[in-house]
Design goal:
It contains 26 helices and 12 strands. With about 550 residues, the chain is of the alpha+beta class. β9 and β10 form a beta hairpin.
């Protein structure tokens, strides 16, 4: 999507948002009771106090419970602002409060962000991975920058709807249409860059996905009731009071920017475990890492990027030095890094649920906040899974390093952060693997044929993987390919979609870990036992996997 196209769409939202009807309502969806509460429908105050969802959320804001930050937005109509649940301000009266799933819905209701609690400066909602409906899939793709690249029409086409009907669904489910949701995401990215870096304001506008400086200024003013420059000045003053060093952004040329990002995680956050998982699977020449840092080079929609991440020593989260060849890739890169480290997971809820099983309680107590490692490149994860079938992690790492050395694109990088050497290439594209894998990949002939077949389908566009797919859609598209079974499809769903409820009972390492915890190792028996861990079976699997490294 060009800058001019995005600007035109931004300035004519009526084309795509809040339709009155759709001529082909083939996917009609009705909001649940909880969704209606999230839309803040006006009703009698007594009725709202009898609504269990409203009561639970009002109790959370009365306790200023930070566990709910990012999971819903508190709209205060008497002051015209919206807050995070833990806002330190005086708790508003119940009749003046509405709850929203998204900040975009609060914007649409005419509210502005609270300057005291900064409701956007928190981890995102875990619901978008837990849910697998159209609204959740839309939110995942909006965060990945699809609307900025392809417009609302592109998002609708990905989901199989007309733009009008998609707008209707999202407005019913989330309180805002796709364009408003994309604008809210841009505003949040802009706030992150304005308050966390000294990237020039003009660059911030385009890095956040805005099509024009005027649209950027208008949106920041509407959401935060201040100008971009004033927003930055307030943040810098706050950092100065905390005696922290400012974050610098280095621009090597107009298409080459390096900066440091601080990305919060929902507590607790077992950083050592997720960094360790990624480090054990690093591919020589593309990645490096250990249990305290992870770095790599990768492709983005408009160019290339490098990241160098480490746990934040001050608060739960990740500090990440990033470099992008095109500033337009910055917003989707932030989203992908958050997904890679699973920063938005509802860790307390997961730990509480898994701790109810006596076999898991000790592991959860020793390692609270275990995360499900995500993906920076869906196609790469599929090839990792195919090459890693029925071999050890070390064996898969060797085979992938050989593949990358032979077929990967060589790159020249500028050192950033802690990483000064090690980046020499990008992971091979599907086209490169289709042409050369047969001569590089060792092992069973049928597995090699499957790898080549998958690469050919990806290269031809016959197979597409992205964060907006549903679990069933991903499974169906993979399992129809000869040589791909449930383990591969499940692993890809976990890593690419962040699916929280996948238990890979055929995985040998996971079964060995189950034995160490006194659980059955036979796949069907383990599957029956694991049903008790729903909807968090993927996280239970992480606890089982780590037993083999203990």
């Amino acid at each position: 999507m060009t800058t001019n196209q995005r600007q035109a769409e931004d300035e004519n939202p009526a084309q795509n948002v809040n339709p009155a009807h759709d001529e082909n309502p083939t996917h009609a969806e009705n909001p649940t009771h909880a969704d209606k509460t999230d839309l803040a429908e006006k009703s009698d105050p007594d009725d709202r106090r009898n609504d269990p969802v409203f009561v639970e959320r009002y109790r959370a804001i009365s306790a200023r419970d930070a566990r709910f930050d990012g999971q819903f937005i508190v709209g205060v109509h008497s002051t015209g602002i919206y807050c995070r649940p833990s806002c330190p301000a005086v708790t508003p009266r119940a009749e003046n409060v509405s709850f929203y799933l998204t900040s975009a819905a609060a914007h649409e209701a005419g509210l502005r962000a609270c300057k005291r609690c900064l409701p956007d400066a928190v981890p995102g909602s875990p619901q978008w991975n837990l849910r697998d409906d159209v609204a959740a899939r839309s939110m995942r793709m909006i965060a990945d920058g699809l609307v900025d690249r392809d417009g609302v029409g592109g998002l609708a086409a990905k989901l199989g709807y007309t733009p009008r009907h998609l707008g209707r669904i999202l407005t019913n489910e989330l309180g805002a249409g796709p364009l408003a949701l994309a604008r809210a995401h841009r505003a949040q990215t802009a706030r992150l860059l304005l308050t966390g870096t000294d990237l020039p304001v003009t660059d911030v506008a385009f890095a956040a996905g805005f099509g024009s400086i005027r649209q950027f200024n208008d949106t920041v003013l509407a959401v935060y009731q201040t100008t971009p420059s004033a927003l930055r000045e307030v943040a810098q003053a706050r950092l100065a009071r905390k005696a922290r060093h400012p974050v610098t952004a280095q621009t090597h040329n107009v298409h080459d920017t390096a900066l440091t990002l601080r990305l919060p995680a929902r507590e607790p956050f077992d950083a050592e475990e997720v960094f360790g998982f990624l480090a054990e699977r690093t591919i020589a020449g593309i990645e490096s890492g250990d249990r305290t840092h992870y770095a790599r080079a990768l492709r983005m929609p408009n160019g290339t990027a490098t990241i160098d991440a480490a746990p934040n020593a001050e608060t739960p989260g990740v500090v990440c030095d990033v470099r992008v060849s095109d500033v337009a890739d910055l917003a989707p890169l932030v989203s992908r890094i958050r997904r890679l480290f699973d920063l938005d997971a509802d860790a307390r809820a997961i730990d509480i649920a898994l701790s109810s099983d006596p076999s898991l309680v000790a592991s959860v107590r020793e390692h609270p906040g275990v995360r499900l490692p995500g993906s920076l490149d869906p196609d790469e994860i599929l090839f990792r899974a195919l090459i890693g079938q029925q071999v050890s992690v070390a064996g898969a790492r060797t085979a992938l390093s050989r593949l990358a050395a032979a077929l990967g694109t060589e790159i020249e990088t500028v050192p950033i952060g802690r990483e000064t050497t090690g980046f020499t290439r990008l992971f091979p594209t599907a086209e490169q693997i289709a042409r050369g894998a047969a001569e590089i990949v060792r092992g069973p002939r049928k597995r090699t044929e499957t790898i080549v077949r998958v690469a050919e389908r990806l290269a031809a566009g016959e197979l597409k993987l992205d964060v907006g797919m549903s679990r069933d859609e991903l499974n169906d598209s993979l399992l129809e390919i000869p040589g791909i079974g449930p383990w591969t499809a499940g692993y890809v769903a976990m890593r690419v979609l962040g699916s929280p409820d996948v238990l890979l009972v055929e995985d040998l390492a996971l079964r060995n870990g189950a034995v160490r915890l006194g659980l059955p190792s036979e796949p069907r028996a383990l599957a029956r036992r694991g049903a008790e861990w729903a909807p968090w079976r993927s996280y239970a699997g992480m606890h089982l996997w780590r037993q083999t490294r203990a």
